Amino acid sequence: MKKWLFMLFSLIITIGLVACSNGGDENTSSSSDDNDNEVIELTVWNDWTEDRPENRTYKGMVEKFNEQNENIEVIVEAIPHDDYETKLRTQAAGKQLPDMFRVWPGTRLEPLVNGDTVLPLDEIVDHWDGSIPEGIMGDYAIDGKQYAIPGNISETSLIFYNKELVSQAGFDVFPETYEELKSLIQVLNEEEVTPISLGNKAAWPLQSVYISTIADRFTGSDFLPQALSGEESFENEQFIDALSVIEELNEMEAFNGDMNTLDEAQSRNNFIAGKAAMHFAGSWAVGPILDDAENLDNIGVAPFPSFAGGDGDPAKIAGVAGGGIALNSELSGDEKEAAFEFLKFFYSDEMYQQLLEANIIVPVNLEMGDDIPQVFQTANELAQGGLAPVYDATLTPELTDMINNGLQSITVGGKTPEDLAAEMQEEAESN
Fold it and tell me: Which of these ranges, 12-16, 85-89, 207-211, 304-308, has the smallest mean pLDDT?
């Protein structure tokens, strides 16, 4: 009996061990399957709340990415634009940012980088080599590291011109130098045609549209940050020469007499109506011109002319890269790799093509069909030469107000270029 009981007990133990072993194998297999099927979720904060073409494009790209990537899901969390940056700064201070978030370049990005909240994209930045010009990518580079990819571009310094009026003045090709531009202005005045339609009531156009590019032509793009850091001075002779261009154009009667009582939209409408030969504006004017001009073939677009003795790159145009998506500095491992894959998918020719079709300037030079107006094609092409810094996107609020009001004062004879330069330098030194 003892022998049989011992054998039965041994058999029970053996069966139990085998069962446990099989159970262990099943658990291991199940765990492996779970890992293979695990979905990486990435939340992206943005301000895509308005029903606009670009926002529809952005959200559509996210949806397509999710459809094509079973193991990654990007969750869109849209926040109204007026509240977005306040929330972003608040959450950044407490290191409570989401996986990905929309940012803007320059002084709006720097605090996030300085707070170690943004992950550099240097591991994947080569993906856009040969596609996005270095001068445009540089808007999102700080201390040699890349932190976002530009989605679109806002140009501030384009010259729209009436081809017929310019041709009648003897110019079959738009002037490429400042001296040629002055000759055109002189002939237009002789023919009693307003040369340039300007609406400077709000005081920013002469700064953002004109000086941002004119000053860059003279000083080069390094001047502005150096003047703010104290390495350079606003009393630099070339900067004063740039301010003097506004004084000279005003004395030549290049602008309409009521320039300081019209707003930017009114001056644009006057140009569209044929009341002036030229209108200097940014890419924001492309849409209204496409909508309202009776004969689009008669509207040309040109860059600002070159200036003799200038140190700047004449191919550059003042502008700033639009919003980009940055990554949380705490992303690592599979989550970081998933976010990298998303950025490469998102900032693709497919997305840029969709933006082009919505008449939005993009940082890549894509082929465009005949259905895209030449006015837009030229404006987009001009952006590929690189971007010069926009003054009101770079200066402090105090300096921005000072140069805005100062340029307006120059047009009424209340201030000289030297006066304005000295005031700006004094303000820069006080801070």
Answer: 12-16
- What is the reported pTM? 0.79
pLDDT tens across 43-58, in order?
999 999 988 888 999 9
How many angstroms separate the CA atoms of 81 and 64, rounded?
Answer: 24
- Sketch the domain layout of the chain as residue ranges: 40-152+322-347, 155-318+387-430
Q: Which residues contact 291 (CB under 8 A, 6 or more apart)?
A: none
Evaluate whether 362 touches 149 at the Cβ level (below 8 Å). Answer: no
Check for a shared fold between 40-152+322-347 and 155-318+387-430. yes
Run of H or E residues at 160 = strand 158-162
Per DSSP bridges, beta strands 40-46 and 72-78 are parallel
Q: Domain 40-152+322-347 - what CATH class?
A: alpha beta
CATH of domain 155-318+387-430: 3.40.190.10
Looking at residue 202, its amino acid is A
Task: Give one DSSP letter per residue of 320-374, joined into a string.
Answer: EE--EEEEBTT--HHHHHHHHHHHHHHSSHHHHHHHHHTT---SS-----TTS-H
| Residue 312 tokens, joined | 């700047």
